[in-house]
Amino acid sequence: MSILEVSGIRKVYSSRFGGNFVEALKNVSFQVERGEFVAIMGESGSGKTTLLNILAALDKPTAGKVLLDGMDISKIRDSALAQFRRDNLGFVFQDFNLLDTFTLEDNIYLPLVLSGTPYTEMQNRLRPIATKLGIPGLMKKYPYEVSGGQKQRAAVARAIITNPKLILADEPTGALDSRSSDELLKLFSEVNGQGQTVLMVTHSVRAASVAGRVMFIRDGEIFHQLYRGADTFDSFYQKIADTLTLIATGGERA
Amino acid sequence: MKNLNLYPRLALDGIRKNRRLYLPYILTCSGMAAMFYIINYFQYSSAVKNMNGGDTIQATIGMGIVVLALFSAIFLFYTNSFLIRRRKKEFGLYNILGMGKRNLSVVIACETAAVAAISLVSGLLAGILLSKLAEYGLAYILGAETNYSFEVSPESILSTLKVFLLIFLLIMLNSLRQVWFSTAASLIKSESVGEKPPKANWAFGLLGIALLAGAYYIAVTITDPIVAMVTFFGAVAMVIVGTYLMMISGSVMFCRILQKLKRYYYKPNHFVSVSSMVYRMKRNGAGLASICILATMALVMISSTASLYFGAEDSLMQRYPREYNMEFIMEDFGGIADENVEKIRDTVGVSLAQFGGTPENILEYRYATVAGFLDKSAGTVETNVGYFNPYDTAALDSGLFSFYFVPLSDYNRMYGTRETLNPGEAMMYILRGSYGGSEISFNRGETLKIKKTLQTFELPGDGIVSIVSSMVLVVPDVEAAVGALAGEADFNGDRMVNPTFIYNFDTGLSEDEQAKYSAAFWESFREKMAPGENGVKTREFEGRERDRRDFYSLYGGLFFLGIILSLVFIFAAVLIIYYKQISEGYEDRSRFEIMQKVGMTSKEIRKSINSQLLTVFFLPLIFAAMHLAFAFPIIRKILLLFSLSNYILFAAVTVICFVSFAALYTLVYKITSNAYYNIVSGAKEGSS
Fold this sequence. Notes:
The complex is a heterodimer of chains A (254) and B (688). With 254 residues, chain A is an alpha/beta fold. Helices cover 37% and strands 26% of the residues of chain A.
């Protein structure tokens, strides 16, 4: 059964006085199965950020439906949205979005504390995650004191500690050097390997190559998608790169 | 030509675009200038000079001018440094876009000039308009009359301009220095500098606590008014330093301890607020401490001067228990012989009768005074006091006394008693002090055996309000008791022992008549009792109604100064609060955005903001209350020097002042936290 069902999403932005309309998303429909690792690729302005905002319930679609685990997220009251996000979604952002007033440990605990989880349980949950992400020694450090890659790993820990139904990652490697990027991507595929559903928006071919499926979005529409199937990282990488070239040179659907 | 207009335009634009920051600054500058003008106006105004007691007022207020000028300079400097910090990014951008530091300096100069011009013109206008109002207020406080003519004082305008232009010049130089010595990149980044995780500085935190505890201990344990006066400033300095250390390090320390209490810390409503508070305290501890100190100073000043003023009647009555007081210092002990005393009584009666009064409720007795150090364990008195250094608190503690030798016959007459004493015996009465010995011996006089300790004895008014301990020794023969001391000279070369007769009485005249006739009465009396006749060496006269004006003009002047200075301090505190809220708003904005993304509901955010603001905001108020409570005993002692002993009045006035200040503070909190919410929630600049 699909964990995420997106059907007929359309998003129109109008300028302040209603004069100009911009159609950021035209008619987007897709499904994500439980345990899948999906990457969404597209150039700047293709509508991928709008799509992610709608999936994260940060923005509402003009038309269409988003079902998360069978629940229509556009029907959730505004006041309940933040809690819905906290309980069902995990976020990883390009710029980490860690709070500088907290240690890494406290940053990771934040969503749990907000849900009123007892301290001992939080500890029990953190221990295996911190070990897995290779940051147990950094727990008492502040974001200010650690490297970008370490920050992003803490952010991943914060995203998965609530056992969310879906992790949404927005350009997670965008602010990292290539070594940290590779480590993070490896982490994502490991997390995914343990059954966590991940949806990642990126324009890095390298990042997309670790996914199980890549969707290409252009001018507000799903333009194409690729399944890894039996491909190795390298051959999948090549396919993605080819597809991107095709899109960039204005080719039609393969 | 176009280029020349660019800089003023950039400067004005900068002010306009940052009006949320500049408007309060300009208001403060003009407020300070207005106050300064008013206080100067009093100094130069002939209307004030012509008021009863106007000279005293002008002298008292003159002290205020210096304080106000210094405070304005420090405070405007502080405020401006805050503005500059926020503007640096803009200057950095101009710098990158190709404006040299020279050009930037021109912009800054234009900006300072604009601010100075606006605030001085509006401040002086406000000052001129309000000065008459303030004059009525002053006249009302003094119970004096004033005219209705409007007066502008060019001297005051000039001195206000001089002082504030100098301040603005210094401010400008400081801004220039900051821009001149930094690179474009550091200018742009300057706002986000200092995001290091705060470390609790235990040493400083503990030192702060120790200083506060020490100052409190001093304030509570001091018994002697003069010692209180001298130590007060030391205690104040300790409190100021202690408060700063406490707020900066102590509070971080406290939050760190809270964070260690996992059970407390990891609760939704504590988690965010405690951790942000650590940061807030580190950045704004100094601001909080300043608010606290300013509030405390304002409260101390207003409550003590108000108490003095409202207690002036009490003090007056205490100082002048009777309407007319006369004191005769005689040539020798023969001067206080019965026939001379009888003559004085008669003459007073005759003189007073001319004005329709008769002496009644009379207090009269003879005494001889000498000052000396009493060694309480040995029971000996050293009368060779020498120059008394009021800062020598050890000497005070060692037992400086004014000794009054009073003849037994006068005592028995005053109190209708039939006490008897053998030669060498005495009855003792002590005001402000104690002595447990059974004998007392003067260095070159007689040794007296204390037969009895008296419960009451009425000293003359100046003895009652004196800060020095007084010891009355009722003896059978004053001359014998004083003995050889009578021939000695004190360190000034004056006679050491003065045989004195006091004659204090009510007149049966109304207050107006007393005031009206006191000069004429004294005139007619003094002719009949000229020095050199009847054994009189010098004589002094005091009239309660005659001196009332001086009393009120001193206390009224202090009260007025108290009002003005506490207004200025409160003004400053409010502005610091405002800037604190604004700057915290900008800092917190991004933080709350992140929290929202991670899944904090806006309700939770609002709740956590509220709990933080409340805690941090009311911390200075709580500390001010604490400081005030501990300052109470020491100030009470100091007020004794101003002959205010009605401490219930002082307590009531202090409580009223504090409650009204707390109300004002809460109001300011409401207003400024709105500004904060607008910033945090990303409302458009200047739309609030």
